[in-house]
Specification:
CATH superfamily of the largest domain: Periplasmic binding protein-like II
CATH topology of the largest domain: D-Maltodextrin-Binding Protein, domain 2
Keywords: Signal
Helix content: 25-40%
InterPro entries: PBP_domain (IPR024370), Phosphate_ABC_transporter (IPR050811)
Number of helices: 10
Number of strands: 13
Order of helices and strands: EHEHEHEEHEHEHEHEEEHEHHE
CATH class of the largest domain: Alpha Beta
Strand content: 15-25%
Shape: globular
Distance between the termini: 36 Å
Pfam families: PBP_like_2 (PF12849)
Protein name: Phosphate ABC transporter substrate-binding protein
Radius of gyration: 19 Å
CATH architecture of the largest domain: 3-Layer(aba) Sandwich
Length: about 280
Amino acid sequence: MMLFVLSVITSGCKNEDKSPSYHKGEMTILTDESFKSVTEALAEGYMINYPETKIKVSTKKEDLGFLDLLNDKARIVVMSRDLSPEEMKTYKERVDRNFLPARFAADAVVFIVPKNSTKESISMDEISKGMQSENKEFIFDGTNSSNLNFVAQRLKKQPRDLKFSVIPGNKNIIEELNKYPDKIGVIGLNTFSRPYDKESEQLRNKVKILPVESHGKLYDTDYENLRKMNYPFTRVLYFLTNEGNFNIANGFIRYSCTQLGQMIVQKEGLQPYNLYRREVQMR
């Protein structure tokens, strides 16, 4: 079933009561380190279009960023996991808004091994059993992180029930994985998804991404598998805000969901959530 439908703006990307302040002012976006790159690229694009705005991107573990939003310590956060019914209820009560996620990109959690590893793929069964093993063979970037949260959700487990090792930071996992040849790193695809970026290329050359076997088929993280959500650990990134009017946060969300913002998402090597039809008239 196709998740990504042809649309201009999803329901979570609606315009609110218009106010001129969307094009000037300052704002901080909280994002997990795993998708900092795409968030920064969108922020830079917005500031180019609206020079009187200043947007800072600050990294914070996904769960902690969501708590800051609920407690009015942040105006906008980037999320990847599904909220529980209780979390949605709390969001509506605290923020006084319906839960309308502004979805803007398909990212993925990927499993990596050193370049010289003989391992060529990994199965859902291996992942499930490995996350219960005392060997702690999977390395995550920390607790409360988007990667751990998403894998736990995909396995229908609570993060506290899983067993794993920790190396803080997605890039650090890549850099240090050679020291642990019997381990498997778990990082966000956006860590090195930028196709023409020199640093991303250097990071990609140090590791090997393992295709994931599910129901007898192997899936990698190409555009097609992300678009159709065939890759088992595809995740949809979305913005949440507590801003009730059309100020800078909602202006930024609208921009990210339009064609210009979606082109930036694609340049980041991720799958845009909103697809745009290109029409050519023949005479």
